[in-house]
Amino acid sequence: MAAPGYLGTGITPEQQEAFVRDGYIIIRGVLSQDEILSLREAADRAEQRWLANPNRIGCDLPYLRRVEPLIEYDDKFVELLDHDAFFPVVRELMGSGVAMLDTSYFITPPRQGWGHTSKWHLDEALTGPYPAPIPLMLKASIPLDAIANLDDGPTAVVPGTHRLSYNDIRPDPDDPRDMPGKVPLLASPGDVIIFHGRIHHAAMPNIGTRTRRVLHYNYGHIWMKPWPGYEPSGRVRALAQTDVRKQLLHISDHHYQSRLPGTER
After folding, report:
1. In this structure, what CATH number is given to the domain that contains residue 198?
2. Other CB atoms closer than 10 Å to residue 106's CB: what's the count?
3. CB distance 62 to 166 below 8 Å
4. Is 120 helix (H, G, I), strand (E, B) or coil?
5. For residue 198, which of 93, 117, 125 has the smallest C-alpha distance?
6. DSSP assignment string, 74-112
7. Is 263 inside a domain boundary?
8. Which domain holds residue 131?
9. Which helix (H) or strand (E) holds 37?
10. Domain count, the chain
C-alpha cells in the first residue's frame, strides 16, 4: 500500500494505482538534460573525493564501485534530497514523516562479472506474515546513463512481491537473469525510478559495453535512524535551511505537511 493521500500533491491516481499494484513506478523525463549533466559532473567530483578519503565506507570491487554516503561528497546531492521532480511523489507514498536513511552512487563497469548486489533480495525485512501497511523504505534511483536493455545491467523487480509475506519462499537462481517473472527497469537519463523497499529485486549483470551509473536515495521515516556511518555530518546538517531538509536529515522531528504549499488540511 501507499500512505493515505492526505498530502494532496505530487502523484497521479494512475501512479498511485501502479505503485500499490506493482511496487514500483518510473517517472519519465522529469529531470532536464542540463540537470543530468550537472549531476554527472557532481558525481565525478564525489567519486574522486571518496577515493581520496582513507576512512571511506562503501565498496570498491571489480564489478561495482559504491560511493557512500553520497551527500557527504558534493553539496549538489543535498539539493537533490527534496527535488520537485520526484520528492513530492516520494512524500505522498511514504507519508508526512519521511526522512533520509542513506544515499549512494553505484558505478558498474561493463563485463566485470557480478556479486552480492545481483542476488535477489528485499531492502525492507520486516519479519512476520503481513507486510507493513505503508512502505517502511522506498528507493528513488536516478540513472545518469541510458539503461536500454537487459545487457546494460538494469535493476530488475518481480512486480507485486512487495505484497507478499516476508515468510514466503522465493526463487533464488544462481544466475539472477533466470528469475521467473522479472521485469527490468529500463530508463533514460532524466527518468526517476521509485520502488518499494519490500519488492524482490536485483541488479542485473552489466554485460554490455558501457558503464552503468546510478544515484540511489533511500527514504524511510523520521523514527528510523540512518544506518551507522550514514549519519549526516555537521557540514551537511548546516546546509539544511528548510523545514523539509531538516526533517529529511533528522535535525527535527516535526511533520512538515502543514508548512508546505498545497498541503493544508
Report:
1. 2.60.120.620
2. 24
3. no
4. coil
5. 125
6. -THHHHGGG-TTTHHHHHHHH-TTEEEEEEEEEEE-TTS
7. no
8. 20-256
9. helix 33-51
10. 1
Q: What's residue 260's pLDDT?
A: 44
Q: Cell triple for residue 164?
A: 507478499
Does 5 reside within a domain?
no
Residue 265 carries which side chain, given as an amino acid letter? R
> Which residues have C-beta within 8 Å of that of residue 252, sequence separation ≥ 6?
243, 246
Q: What b-and-e string marks burial along 114-144, b requiring 16 or more CB atoms within 10 Å of the CB?
A: beebbebebbbeeeeeebeebbbbbbbbbbb
pLDDT at position 19, please? 96
User: What pLDDT, on the 0 to 100 scale, is given for residue 225?
Assistant: 87
The residue assigned the cell 544515499 is: 103
Omega into 232 within 30° of 0, i.e. cis?
no
Q: What is the pTM assigned to this prediction? A: 0.91
Answer whether residue 261 is part of any domain.
no
Q: Give the residue from 116, 140, 120, 126 showing the smallest Cα distance to 218.
A: 140
* Burial status of residue 188 (CB atoms within 10 A of its CB: 0-12, 13-18, 19 or more): middle
What is the C-alpha separation between 104 and 68, in angstroms, rounded? 5
* Per-block mean pLDDT, blocks of 10 residues, the chain (265 long): 46 93 96 97 98 96 96 96 94 91 96 84 72 84 97 96 80 92 97 96 94 97 89 94 91 57 39
DSSP letters spanning 191-248: BEEEEETTS-EEEPP--SSS-EEEEEEEEEETTSPPPTT-SPPHHHHHT--SHHHHHH
Residue 220 CA to residue 90 CA, distance in Å, equals: 10
Beta bridge partners of 67: 58, 105
Within 8 A by CB and 6+ apart from 153, the residues are 108, 110, 147, 203, 204, 205, 206, 207, 208, 212
